[in-house]
Write a structure and sequence with these properties.
Low-confidence stretches: 17-32, 448-464
Number of helices: 4
Mean pLDDT: 84
Number of strands: 27
Strand content: 25-35%
Distance between the termini: 106 Å
Shape: rod-shaped
Oligomer: single chain
Radius of gyration: 47 Å
Length: about 475
C-alpha cells in the first residue's frame, strides 16, 4: 500500500518537472517582468507644447524724452510711477523722471550765460574806454593842428627856416592823426568781432538752455490716451520706481489694446524646424484652465536666443489669439499646444515602448509568445509614435525589455511592408506640405501688425 502511494507521488513530481521544462523554461512564453499595452488605432495629432505670456498685439508705448541724448543725459531713473493696472484718462499723470543730472546741466548753462553776459558787458566797457581815450587824443591833435596852422600864417614873413619848421610840426600832427584814426578803426573791428563772438556764444547757450528746459518738461509724463497702464518689461524684470531709463530706449510703460492679444512663447531649437507661420494653436490661460482658446502663429524668429534657466537655445514665436475675453490680461501665462499635423486612422504606441539598436524594434506578445519585432516608425508627438509596419492588430507591446532579452528571436519587417510604409510617408509628407502652405496663406491674409509700430506723438509717445 505504501509502495503504491509513493509511486503516485513520484508520478506527480515527474509530471510537474516535465511541465516546467515544456512550458516554464521556454524563451517563447510570457515573462512576468514585462508591462504590456495594446497599440491604439485612430487619429493621431502631432504637436508641440510651449509656455507663453500674453501681450497686447497693439499698444501705445509711453516714453520719456527722446531728446535726452541731445542734451548729454544718457540715462536717468523713474522717480514716480502710478500703480500698474491703473485706468487712466488722456492727459492724466503717469510718471516723472529724476531731473538731478538735468538740473545740474541747467545750472551750468545758466552760469555759462551769466559769465558770457558779464564778459560782454566788460568788453563793451573796455571798448568804450579805449574809444574815449583815442577820441580825446584825436581832439587834442586837431586842436594842436589849428594852432600850428595859425603859427604858419603868422610866420609867413619870417625866414624860410622858421616857416619850414612850422610846416614840419603840422605834418607830424597830421601823421599822428592818421595813426590814431587807423588805431580807432582797428579797435572798432576787433571789438565788434569779440562782441559778435560773445553774443554768438550767448545765443548758443540760450538755445541749449531752452532745449534743456524743454526736455525737463518732458520728464513729467502724461497718458496720451485712456486705458489700463502696464509696466514695461525688460530682461531682468519690470520697470518700476528707481529703474533706469536709457536715452536710446526711454520707454516707461504702455497702454495695451486688450481687444487683440498675442501669446509670446519660446520653442526649443530641436523643435523649431516643425514650427511655421499659420499653424493653428490651442491655448489655455493657466489662471483660467477651464477656458479654451484658439490662435494662429503670426511670426517665428529667425535667430535663437538664450534665456535664464534654459540650457538649449530657444526661438521666439508670436501667436495671435482668435477670441476676445475680459479675463485675458497682459503678463498672464498661457499653455500653447501647436498643431503640427493630424494623421487619420493610424496605429500608434507609447514612445517608451520603442527601442533602437541600429534598427527600430519593440517587444511584442502575440498569444503566449514574445518576440523582438522590427518596426517602421512614422511621426511622433510627446507621448506616442506611429507604427507603419511590423505590428498586427492582435499584438501587444511591452513598455520594458525582458530580463533575458538576448534569448528572444528578432523578427524583421518584410520588404513589401517597408516599401508600403515608405509610400505612405511620402504621401503624408506631400499632404503636410499642402496643409502648411494653406496655413501660411491664411496667416498672410490676417495681416499681422508689428507690436511696437512707431508713430510719433506729443510728449514723445509712440503709438502701436
Amino acid at each position: 500500500m505504501k509502495t503504491k502511494h509513493l509511486a503516485w507521488i513520484l508520478g506527480i513530481a515527474l509530471l510537474l518537472v516535465a511541465a516546467y521544462f515544456a512550458f516554464g523554461s521556454s524563451t517563447d512564453t510570457v515573462k512576468s517582468d514585462i508591462l504590456l499595452v495594446t497599440p491604439e488605432q485612430g487619429p493621431f495629432e502631432v504637436g508641440i507644447q510651449a509656455t507663453g505670456e500674453l501681450k497686447a498685439k497693439n499698444s501705445i508705448k509711453i516714453r520719456g524724452s527722446q531728446a535726452m541724448r541731445s542734451v548729454g543725459v544718457w540715462q536717468t531713473s523713474i522717480k514716480e510711477l502710478i500703480p500698474e493696472g491703473t485706468i487712466v484718462e488722456k492727459g492724466d499723470f503717469v510718471a516723472s523722471l529724476d531731473k538731478t543730472e538735468l538740473a545740474n546741466k541747467i545750472t551750468e548753462r545758466t552760469t555759462d550765460i551769466e559769465r558770457e553776459q558779464t564778459k560782454l558787458e566788460q568788453m563793451q566797457i573796455d571798448t568804450a574806454i579805449q574809444m574815449k581815450d583815442i577820441n580825446d587824443q584825436i581832439g587834442n591833435i586837431l586842436f594842436n593842428m589849428e594852432q600850428e596852422r595859425l603859427e604858419i600864417e603868422r610866420n609867413k614873413y619870417e625866414p624860410q627856416m622858421v616857416i619850414d619848421q612850422s610846416l614840419l610840426k603840422l605834418k607830424n600832427s597830421e601823421r599822428s592823426l592818421d595813426q590814431l584814426e587807423n588805431k580807432k578803426e582797428l579797435i572798432e573791428i576787433q571789438s565788434d568781432a569779440k562782441i559778435r563772438e560773445i553774443k554768438t556764444n550767448i545765443k548758443q547757450l540760450n538755445s541749449k538752455l531752452a532745449l534743456l528746459n524743454k526736455v525737463a518738461g518732458e520728464f513729467t509724463i502724461t497718458a496720451p490716451e485712456g486705458g489700463m497702464l502696464i509696466y514695461e518689461k525688460t530682461w531682468n524684470g519690470k520697470k518700476t520706481v528707481g529703474a533706469q531709463i536709457s536715452g536710446w530706449d526711454p520707454v516707461v510703460a504702455e497702454l495695451p489694446d486688450l481687444s487683440k492679444m498675442i501669446s509670446v512663447a519660446y520653442v526649443n531649437e530641436v523643435d523649431i524646424s516643425k514650427v511655421k507661420e499659420g499653424q493653428i494653436v490651442n491655448l489655455t490661460i493657466d489662471a483660467f484652465p477651464e477656458k479654451k482658446f484658439t490662435g494662429q502663429i503670426i511670426s517665428v524668429a529667425n535667430i535663437g536666443q538664450e534665456l535664464k534657466n534654459q540650457e538649449a537655445k530657444v526661438f521666439e514665436i508670436k501667436i495671435e489669439v482668435d477670441q476676445e475675453d475680459e479675463v485675458m490680461r497682459p503678463a498672464m501665462t498661457t499653455t500653447n499646444k501647436i498643431q503640427i499635423y493630424e494623421y487619420e486612422d493610424v496605429t500608434f504606441i507609447p514612445i517608451d515602448a520603442l527601442q533602437n539598436d541600429s534598427l527600430d524594434y519593440v517587444w511584442v506578445k502575440n498569444g503566449s509568445k514574445i518576440r523582438k519585432q522590427e518596426v517602421v516608425v512614422g511621426p511622433a508627438n510627446e507621448d506616442h509614435i506611429i507604427i507603419l509596419a511590423g505590428l498586427s492588430k492582435d499584438d501587444k507591446v511591452s513598455l520594458k525589455e525582458p530580463n533575458d532579452a538576448a534569448t528572444y528571436e528578432f523578427t524583421l519587417v518584410e520588404g513589401n511592408a517597408k516599401s508600403e510604409a515608405e509610400k505612405k510617408m511620402a504621401e503624408w509628407t506631400k499632404s503636410k506640405e499642402s496643409y502648411d502652405k494653406t496655413n501660411e496663406e491664411k496667416a498672410k491674409e490676417r495681416q499681422p501688425s508689428k507690436i511696437d509700430k512707431e508713430d510719433g506723438g506729443g510728449g514723445f509717445i509712440i503709438v502701436g
